[in-house]
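Thread: Modeling a multi-component assembly for a lab meeting

Hi all, long-time lurker, first post. My supervisor asked me to bring a structural picture of a complex we are working on to next week's group meeting, and I have zero experience with this. I have the sequence lines for every component (616 residues in total). Could someone generate the structure of the whole assembly? Inputs are pasted exactly as I received them:
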Amino acid sequence: MTQALTVQNLTAHYGATKVLEDLSLSVGKGELVSLLGASGCGKTTTLRLIAGFLEPTSGSIRLGDKDLTRLPAYKRDIGLVFQNYALFPHLSVLDNVGFGLKQRGVAPGDREKRARAMLERVGLSQLADRLPGALSGGQKQRVALARALVIEPPLLMFDEPLSNLDAKLRVDMRVEIRQLQRANGTTSVYVTHDQEEAFSISDRVAIMNAGRIMQFDTPETLYQRPANTFVARFVGFENLVPMTVSARDGAEVTAVTDGGSQLKLSQDRFGAIPDVFVLAARADGLAVSTDANAEGIPATLGLRTYLGRAYQYQADTAAGQLIANGSLSAPLEPGALAKLVPVPDQCCVLKPE
Amino acid sequence: MMTSRINPLLILFTVLVYIFLMGPLIIVLGASVSDTTYLTFPPQGLTLRWFENIFEISAFKRTIITSLELAFLATGLALLIGIPAAYALNRYRIKLPSWLSTVFVLPILVPEIVLGFSLLKSVAVGMQTPIFLTLLVGHMLLVLPYCVRVVSASLASFDFSIEEAAVSLGSPPVKTFFTIVLPNVRSGVIAAFILAFITSINDVSTSLFLTGPGVSTLPIQILAHVEQFFDPTIASVSVLLMLLTVAVMSIVERTLGLTFLAK
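Re: Modeling a multi-component assembly
Sure thing. I ran the full set together rather than chain by chain. Output:
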């Protein structure tokens, strides 16, 4: 039976180095949650703690109503899929898949039937008698997936499962993983450094940095409404402009950039604006306008590149270089003067770091 | 048909190397079947009586048995220590200090004569241990480095996430070691066994100090025999030792293939 996972206040050390700090995470029944971050952010450590290969300094890990915190790894009943497949090289594909059932004391006949059925589901029934060495990367990962799923674990965890596959196969496999996970309704934790991969298959994503979760939310929210400058930068907000409020008039706020450019922003459209803030925008979030009266950051346009859906400009402003997109109908030449106008729906007002 | 040209110098070199490697063995083999009472090559006449003679000299019979017992026991014990040591050195490579693996090579670095002499002084004389036991300790120390190094080399290419996969599927760690880790380093263990076995059975330097009244090894007995006699018995014993080695190798080759030695 699939179960909800609750991780509370988890702290872990490697020797004297703290690698995880007060991490809390809850994964609902049947939910797929990704841990996303650069290498060294603690995502794999978190997975290994949940799997039982590492011991936390403090905190607790619960699966349903079972406390896993001090349970040895082999009693945790968690399905694991590894980056390098980790198939047993001396066992046939069928025996690899049947291994977990054997540990659970399933009789040989029943074991083979269930292993074959699972191989059928991942489309590899014709390779049952091969050794793993004779399989391609994609086939190996399917076997690994079948091996983890056949024990019907209450929790399934993936550690960068697609990193060793080529780009095309990666996309196919992630769809396949998501379909199998959905069909079985297995609670899953998925570790990856690939943002597209995480966002495309997860119900929720935890973006991690330096042993902490920076934001834990749905991919949509993370992508559109990052909660802090770290997440904003991570999900591709190229422009982070520090600003200070100089005057308030009802909902209207006048803010000044580092270089002294003034900008009027409406709290009705941008949300509550604190006295010191960072305006975060993707290139799409800053519209290039040649209207001298437009409410934007004055800029001198530099290099223009063609994106297909728009032109992108490197723009020099008093607040430093920003990146903005302009319309396809009116290309502008380098050296042209323009205003970069923040688009309310596509900008975020964030607290400074 | 196309034939590729081979440099004649290369052929000459190859032949010379083969002569250099095989020559001594052929001479010993020839001398062992010579129908003379002294060692000579090429053999004069043809007889197997020197082989019969080995078994008529009781000292040879006794020492062959001692040497075999010693080689099996020392190698077995060294593997019992060496496999877990190699496992730990590889599994916890990051956590362990790097000099630790060097410790297991020390017996190779110390000249065998020094090893033998120090064991004689500190163990045989110092602790009054029985001769066979001292020999066993000496041989075990002698072959332990081979066991640790060869098994380590096998484990170095073993991916320990395979072990973790087994554990995550519900296999307890000790069971996992025997069902998952060991089968995958089997070739290394067998290679270690062969190397250690041959090293033990051929050892002179260390054994020289540790053998004593009533207990000796075959190579030491050969040495003692040569000092007194110059008949071809000694050549036939050498041939016997060679055959023993070849037998061990071919059994392994038949069952596993020797390719793993190149790994």
